[in-house]
Specification:
The protein is of the alpha+beta class. 32% of the residues are buried.
Length: 865
């Protein structure tokens, strides 16, 4: 809850008003003191208070009271609290337009609310009491320190260290009584203990000074070097605790708070009736169900795109508090099909949230609900008392197909039947090269397990453990791994299979065999690539010749033997159609002519699309150019431009791939923050993004999603360790673009050469050329003489139409990301139909774009038809 209006226009306190407020401190405190009875020893359960009274004590105004005053407030009944609040919040200067007390509190609450959900975080308390710091330094040394920030205020003599003791807990103000050990990671604390004990035998600097450049600053601010080197000028507990004390001059605080300069505050999203229910038991906990109602006419804006039906995108960030501590934090995202205008005006939109909480306890649930498209926000606090047993409640009448919460829990895999087996899915959803397949076998009958890849037997295991190292394709491709369990009489008992590396994206079919322009007859192998949308299942792929179904395939590989009749006459036409159908009934198809009349050429309708960056002599994006200034050459042959436009707002799919090997230990924190800021700036509701990390091997952290907040959240947890599988990371990241059309870009950050990949660089480069994805490579701290890795990163960018950057330190990354953003938001799309359609499909065709006016164009170096 906020006191007063949530949106307050910036307003400076005039000199005259400042003079009048000089009397406010004495006036307000005297009113407050006269309203309070004697102090009580035991506090009350504030969650049982009316919400506006609880908020007065715990969401801001209570910080203006000293401990004695707070204790007196806790001893009042509801009527006494109401009287006290009215006295404290009364307008001290009725002759002025605003209530200066309420406005000051509201502005500081708005400042806090832009970043924090609760004042349990002592950074939020500092913002409320003192406003923004003059300097706020985030210490990014994950291997040395716990998460730290150093805040500097001109009015506070000492700089302040705030730290997060454990993950997902609020930051605390560091005090000497905590000891310096509280700031270090346990591993570094151990090594510093060894250093202090054995330093007379050791040479060189302390380990923490070697790993983190900010260590010297932390030593200086805390007055303690390492763990035990105490300085005479170190701060005391009392000095630092004054930063969180209530203001001694309330009038001065009000003047400063009323002048707080706020950035744009989101418009308020109205929330209707909120109900709480407890419908079921979840283990030892009770399911607590909150139903949020966004009333009709609330102005929720749908996301509209030509490729998808309109949908609402609503994000809910939540925090559950119990006994003055954070019980849990969560983040949910709702994707709701947009309703017709008439329905939107009459029916409320319901959002249902389930949390499992301990029975018999009181909780405070804080929610921030945001319309991602309209940027309207609602803030809601709700106290709940969880019963000891479930309580039957009437279900809210919400159509099942209108609410989809992402991030549902997955059920554990179970082994079916008494005698059976199951193939354990790989840890990664992208597998290539060698893969160790593991099988869980139950019962007594199965004595032999056979491993097949794409229907070909690769390995047989006749005794436990039932594992096998299978040889997959060098590059990621869609493959089926099947296992079969046999008894002692060679009877098939059970089987299981999984599809590896299934392509995801917009539903699409592409015939890959037989080749264009061929004249095959008789039995011919036909093949296709099929892209399946996320959260969808493909039921079948039909192969038809002249409209007659010849084969139906229900699982990859999408291949079939078809019979192609001989051409009966010069005017005879024979064509192959491949149709893919989803479980929902949606379908897509591709057609290839096998025989055409001699007088008719097969028409090539596929356009070669070139997303092209154009820069001027100052290396800045060049805009306002016309099609007449461009020229396209394919293998040196001039091509006719069929499509031309500046694509500032076309949808973009962008991947972030970050090196998290051990050598990134010092720079990873700053690199991580720069990447998060970059994504938040460049990704719009129409775009998609994903994140990959790599050290010993690449790992997908977040698949393609329009939820940029979810991608940023995964980047927050990056930790540096291990070796560098750079080549594997390139191929893995590019594979996640398969099935995606339109603008695509990969941003790859690394600080060193490859040390552990299974794929050679030349093969990775060839894969990059085939992908058609622009790669922006960033070399961090790579010396000028490290020519091997410099040449790799440069060649990757040059071949794919991206750009290479070499920076000396992580603090320069923000500027690099700004450059990439400018380029991606000001590209030109040039498309043409090759004058050699279908010929030599296995040959790489070079492409060059030329542009006049002294400008320079960058695009892919070529393509495979």
């Amino acid at each position: 809850m906020t006191i007063g209006p949530k949106r307050v226009a910036p307003k400076l306190v005039t000199a005259a008003l400042s003079a009048k407020l000089s009397l406010l401190s004495v006036l307000s405190l005297s009113l407050f003191a006269s309203a309070l009875p004697a102090a009580v020893e035991r506090g009350a359960d504030t969650l049982a208070w009316p919400e506006h009274q609880r908020a007065f004590l715990e969401d801001g105004p209570g910080l203006l009271l000293d401990s004695a005053q707070r204790q007196r407030l806790l001893g009042l009944d509801a009527a006494g609290r109401e009287q006290l609040m009215a006295s404290f919040l009364a307008d001290p200067l009725p002759e002025t337009p605003a209530n200066e007390v309420r406005e000051a509190i509201a502005r500081r609450q708005a400042l806090v609310g832009q970043e924090f959900m609760s004042l349990l975080d002592e950074r939020a308390r500092l913002l409320f009491l003192h406003g923004p710091p003059a300097e706020r330094l985030v210490v990014d040394c994950d291997q040395t320190f716990k998460p730290l920030e150093v805040w500097t205020y001109s009015a506070i003599p000492r700089r302040l260290v705030l730290y997060q003791d454990e993950a997902a807990t609020p930051y605390r103000l560091w005090l000497p009584i905590d000891s310096k050990r509280a700031l270090y990671r346990p591993e570094m604390e151990y090594w510093l203990d060894q250093y202090h004990e054995l330093r007379q035998f050791l040479s060189g600097r302390r380990f923490d000074l070697q790993l983190c450049r900010s260590t010297k600053l932390i030593d200086e601010v805390t007055g303690v070097g390492g763990l035990l080197e105490y300085r005479e000028d170190r701060p005391s507990n009392e000095e630092l605790q004054q930063a969180l004390a209530p203001p001694s001059d309330l009038a001065a605080w009000i003047r400063a708070a009323a002048a707080t300069d706020l950035e744009a505050v989101a418009l308020e999203l109205p929330l209707g009736l909120v109900t709480a229910g407890f419908p079921a038991r979840d283990g030892q906990r009770i399911v607590t169900r909150l139903t949020l109602s966004v009333p009709a006419g609330a102005g929720v804006e749908p996301f509209r795109d030509d490729s998808t039906p309109p949908e609402y995108r609503i994000q809910v960030v939540g925090m559950v508090e119990h006994d003055g501590r954070v019980f849990e934090q969560f983040r949910l995202r709702f994707v709701v099909p947009a309703r017709a205008a008439a329905d939107a005006e009459s029916d409320p939109l319901a959002l249902v949230l389930d949390r499992s909480l301990r029975p018999g306890l009181s909780y405070l649930i804080r929610l921030r609900v945001e319309d991602e498209i309209g940027k309207r926000v609602a803030v809601l606090n709700r106290a709940v008392m969880v019963p000891t047993e479930p309580v039957a409640v009437a279900e809210v009448p919400v159509p099942a197909d209108t609410i989809v919460a992402l991030g549902d829990r997955l059920e554990a895999t179970r082994v079916p039947g008494r005698d059976g087996l199951v193939l354990v899915p790989p840890e990664s959803d992208l597998v290539f090269g060698l893969w160790r397949a593991e099988v869980l076998v139950s019962g007594e009958r199965i004595v032999e397990v056979r491993f097949l890849v794409d229907e070909k037997l690769q390995f047989t295991r006749k005794r436990p453990p039932f594992t096998a190292e299978l040889g997959l394709t060098t590059f990621p491709s869609e493959q089926v791994v099947r296992i079969e369990g046999y008894d002692k009489d060679q009877g098939l008992v059970a089987a299981d299979e999984i599809v590896l590396n299934q392509q995801r994206g917009e539903l699409r079919v592409r015939i890959t065999a037989p080749p264009r322009g061929g004249k095959e007859t008789g039995t011919v192998e036909a093949a296709a690539e099929v892209v399946v949308p996320e959260e969808s299942r493909l039921t079948k792929v039909e192969f038809r010749v002249n409209g007659v179904v010849q084969a139906v395939v229900e699982q990859p590989p999408w291949r079939a033997q078809i019979e192609v009749p001989p051409q009966a006459g010069p005017e005879d036409v024979t064509y192959l159609t491949v149709v893919a159908e989803l479980e929902s009934g949606a379908s897509a198809e591709d057609v290839r002519f096998l025989h055409v009349p001699s007088y008719m050429d097969e028409v090539e309708v596929d356009l070669v699309e070139l997303y092209t960056t154009v820069t001027d002599r100052s290396n800045r994006p060049a805009q306002g150019l016309g099609v007449e200034q461009f020229q396209i050459l394919e293998d040196g042959r001039k091509q006719k431009i069929s499509r031309f436009e500046l694509v500032e707002d076309l949808p973009l799919t962008i991947g972030i791939t970050i090196d998290t090997s051990g050598s990134m230990i010092e720079a990873l924190g700053e690199a991580r923050r720069a990447a998060i800021d970059f994504l938040s700036q460049i990704v719009t509701p129409r775009d998609r993004s994903f994140a990959v990390r790599f050290s010993d091997r690449p790992e997908l952290m977040m698949p393609r999603t329009s939820d940029v907040g979810a991608v940023a959240q995964t980047l927050e947890g990056l930790v540096a360790s291990g070796s560098t599988a750079l080549h594997d990371a390139i191929v893995t990241s590019l594979y996640y673009f398969r099935g995606v059309r339109g603008r695509r870009a990969l941003v790859l950050l690394s600080d060193g050469d490859d040390t552990s990949s299974t794929i050679p660089f030349r093969e990775a480069l060839e894969y990059a050329r085939r992908s058609g994805v622009a790669i922006y490579t960033i070399g961090l701290g790579i010396g000028r003489l490290e020519l091997g890795v410099r040449n790799k990163l440069s060649e990757l960018s040059q071949e794919t139409g991206g750009r290479v950057f070499f920076v000396g330190k992580a603090s320069e990354l923000e500027g690099v990301y700004d450059e990439i953003e400018k380029e991606l938001r000001s590209q030109y799309l040039l498309a043409y139909s090759s004058d050699r359609p279908g010929a030599g499909e296995s040959d790489f065709r070079t492409v060059e774009v030329k542009v006049g006016g002294g400008n320079k164009a960058r695009t892919i170096s070529g393509y495979y038809p």
